[in-house]
Amino acid sequence: MARNNCKNLYGDLATITSKEENDFVKDLVRSVANDGDTGAFIKATYSTYMHAWTTSLYKTVTFSDWASPTWSPPTNTGRRYIHYCAMLGRDNDWAWVPQDCAESQGMVSVCERSPGRKECHKTSCYKLFTDTFFFHAIEDTCKNAGGYVLEINSKEESDFINGFLGRASVPWSKMYGALYRYKQIWLGVTDKASEGEFRLMSNGGNLDFENWIQGEPKTKRDSLYYAADCVVLNDLEDWKWRNVLCRGERALVCESTNVNGITG
């Protein structure tokens, strides 16, 4: 719920990475919180897999301001599994405290906008976000920004995108975290509707251009990848197309043919 509030504003929950940022956010929350607000969610969740607080998949927090640094999740809550989020707690002078992510009453969200990187070429404008996204969120994210998920319809456009991604001054290592090895970008192409028939996500149209790496896309004979319905650009393969499972978080480029380009 808290993260959705920010997504509706074309942003995300704020990631706090320094004392200066934390002090700024605390002062901001103090100044705008209503009497009934008990806490303010920020972008940090407890990963039972990593046994650590994370800001995204495999990315542990680099700064914290816990009211109780020795906190650990209960081993038996006696009810449903609890997904813990971090919030600034009023009762703790706005220090960080763990909170059930499902509890929203009396909570506000601290949101930030992603500056990203934008360029235009011929009839299209493109924006590379400085966050990573799960597949299920990419269409709405681009739609909210006034565009659609990146589509590459010619070799000329492919060459431009390769240069655009190479020039992009975004914090790749921060986006992908400690396991950062390569860059991958979602492409607006899928064969979810019919296995092996790749079409544009924006309108279901046929592909005018394809740029697969050798051996791609996956086929029904590749049983391990039978459900590999998504496509990404991979920097280690000269930004050629790779057929992947629609899992995990990857970087996102939105495209627009609107004269005003992509917002945000």
TrEMBL record:
Keywords from the named record: Receptor
Positions of the C-type lectin domain: 1-110, 121-255
One Pfam family matching this protein: Lectin_C
Record's keyword annotation contains DNA damage: no
Keyword Zinc among UniProt keywords: no
PROSITE patterns cross-referenced by the UniProt entry: C_TYPE_LECTIN_2
Classification via SUPFAM superfamilies: C-type lectin-like
Name of the protein this chain belongs to: Macrophage mannose receptor 1
Source species of the chain: Elysia marginata
Upper taxonomic lineage: Eukaryota, Metazoa, Spiralia, Lophotrochozoa, Mollusca
